[in-house]
Amino acid sequence: MYYIRIKSNVMKKIILSVFVLTSLQSCVVSTAAKAVKGVAKVGYKAVKGTVKGVGWAVSKANGKIDKDRIDGTWKVIGVYHGSFDAFNNDNNPDSSFSSECTDGFDQIIFNSKKSKFKPVHCSSEKVSWEKYDFEFGKNPSTKEKENYIEFNSSNYISVIDINSKTMILEGNLMPKLAFSGGKLYLLEKIK
Questions:
Q1: Can you give the pLDDT at residue 28?
Q2: What is the per-residue pLDDT for 81?
Q3: What residues form DSSP beta bridges with 47?
Q4: CA-wise closest residue to 108 among 164, 169, 153
Q5: What phi and psi values does residue 111 have, to the nearest 5 degrees?
Q6: Residue 17: what pLDDT?
């Protein structure tokens, strides 16, 4: 009788183990399927077009972006005439950016250690450095929780996303381009 009871307990443990492993495996497969489906949706929305070989990423960064990512010299390679939301809903967004520069290009230089930046028109125009604050929170101009840059105490630029090669900003970044309706900027890191 003692032998049967042990065997019965061992069988219960084996059956319970098999049941638990099967349940966990189905959860993992289900979660993986949801993740792939989510990545596919994000992948579809993430690139809608290219400008000079660089893709327009339209998905906003999730959470806080490291302040040091903005550091460096960024070349303006694309400008969308409209807001981020308009671009996101546009079936065929195009970059209508045409530079007036003959010898250089429009660029923005960020120094994250000193929290200063300067937009430079045609790579040669002398512009003074402007102090900025890189924040994550409720942007006073858009009323959304996002990464943004505040400068001159009342100007705000939304930071849509930054990676090692590209950055996308929304707002009145360069006054010369903003007058023509440019609001969404695609920048490529050059230094």
A1: 53
A2: 78
A3: 57
A4: 169
A5: -115, 100
A6: 77
Residue type (1 letter), 63? G
CATH topology assigned to domain 52-189: Lipocalin (2.40.128)
Q: Identify the pLDDT of residue 35.
A: 46
Query: Beta partners for 155?
Result: 151
* pLDDT of the residue at 4: 52
Burial 109-118 (b: 16+ CB within 10 A, else e): bbebeebebe
Alpha-carbon distances, residue 119 vs 45, 55, 73, 122, 176 (angstroms): 29, 22, 10, 10, 10
CA–CA dist 100, 139 (Å, integer): 32
Rounded CA separation 131/128 (Å): 10
Counting as low any pLDDT under 50, the low residues of the chain are 1, 32-33, 35-48
